[in-house]
Amino acid sequence: MTEALKTAAKAAAPAASALPSNPIVMIPARMASTRLPQKPLADIHGLPMIVHVMKRAEEANIGRVVIACAESEIKAAIEAAGGEAVLTDPALPSGSDRILRALNQLDPEGKHDGVINVQGDLPTIDPALIHTAFELLADGNVDIGTLAAIITNESEKTNPNVVKAIAEIDFDRGERRGRALYFSRTTAPSGDGVLLHHIGLYTYRREALQRFVSAPPAALEKRERLEQLRALALGMRIDVAVVDTVPLGVDTPEDLDAARSMLKAV
Q: Phi, psi (5° rounding) for residue 38?
């Protein structure tokens, strides 16, 4: 085979997957919720909400599942349900800081090379979404993976509590994933086309999580109050996968009632 043919064959061959080989699912949890006091321990059909989140993560069957908790009550509830929990400093500023601190405590040797951050208020999350986010890391150029859904409710387009993911995705060509260019609480991008509701589930290469947490907050991060903008300011690549629905985040008593209704059949 000539050198030209070898080069062409190499270019045509599928790239080897860069998926982390030993991922871990980390679920940050703390009691400090003003709208729903002691939220992680809220009862859903006889189990604390955080235990339901743990079960959804275990159903994904993607790797070890650990709760990074701020209070001993959460740790006790998880261990009573047969799960694994690490107690962390309640003063840590974010869930990202909490999962990295817990990860370094339980795995100082760095055996876990990928980290999936599942929020602790998603008791009804479809385990398939965890896989979808993780699979974005199959591209070796991607540092962080996350999810978004097309906004169908007009009021969400102008709601600052609905974070918009601005990503290079050509929906006219049927694309369902692409590189994130920005995240914002405002209505963006402008012009005709869909808007994306960002879903706060992240997958990281371990070194990316370490770099992200170690860096100081970025200027736009502080302005928008969105920590993922720190990663973009650092030049890290975040890819977004578009999924069909936004999982229910439990923040209020009404959300809790909805979660109980949805989990009746689980």
A: 55, 40
Residue that has been written with the tokens 């991607």 in this structure: 142
For residue 197, count CB atoms less than 10 angstroms from its CB and return exposed for 0-12, middle for 13-18, buried for 19 or more: buried
pLDDT in tens, 108-123: 999 999 999 999 999 9
Identify the pLDDT of residue 34.
Answer: 76
Residues in the chain: 266
CA distance 127 to 62: 9
CB 126 within 8 A of CB 34: no
Residues 6 or more apart from 80 whose CB is under 8 A from it? Answer: none
Res 264: pLDDT: 86
In a 13 Å sphere around the CA of 194, the CA atoms on its Cβ side amount to 19
User: In terms of C-beta distances under 8 Å and separation of at least 24 residues, what long-range contacts does 80-83 make, across chains too?
Assistant: 81/47, 81/48, 81/51, 81/54, 83/51, 83/54
Q: Which ranges of the chain have pLDDT less than 70?
A: 1-15, 265-266
DSSP-derived 3-state class of residue 257:
helix
Q: How many CB atoms lie within 10 A of CB 191?
A: 5
Q: Which two tokens stand for residue 112?
A: 């876990």
Asked whether 132 and 219 are in contact (CB, 8 A), the reply is: no
